[in-house]
Amino acid sequence: MKAAEDVHMIAGEAPVVFARACEMFILELTYKGWTHAEKNKRRSLKKNDIVAAISQTDIFDFLVDIIVPTTEGRGEG
């Protein structure tokens, strides 16, 4: 926040709210990925689970262009 030249002051609550929003984002993404892993009868979260969560969830559409495609069918990821 302080890296922007036009920002001179930041309210004390802003970093706390931003940190909580990041926490909630990571929690939701992890939960969706875990759901995909369980559907595939696995107990470990892999990259392709996160990719699937991003692809299948509308709220993560902004990440579709930056995710690395996975080779889900070959057991890699």
Please compute the radius of gyration using only Cα atoms: 17 Å
Terminal Cα span: 34 Å
Shape: elongated
Q: Count the helices. How many? A: 2
Poorly predicted regions: none
- Beta-strand portion reads under 5%
Short descriptors:
single chain, 77 residues
What does this structure look like?
The chain is mainly α and 77 residues long. Helices cover 48% and strands 0% of the residues. The chain has helices spanning 13-39, 47-56. Helix 1 crosses helix 2. The radius of gyration is 17 Å and the shape is elongated. The mean pLDDT is 85.
Concise structural overview:
The protein is mainly alpha-helical and 77 residues long. It is built from 2 helices and no strands.
Explain the layout of strands and helices.
Layout: H1 13-39, H2 47-56
Helix pairs in contact: 1-2
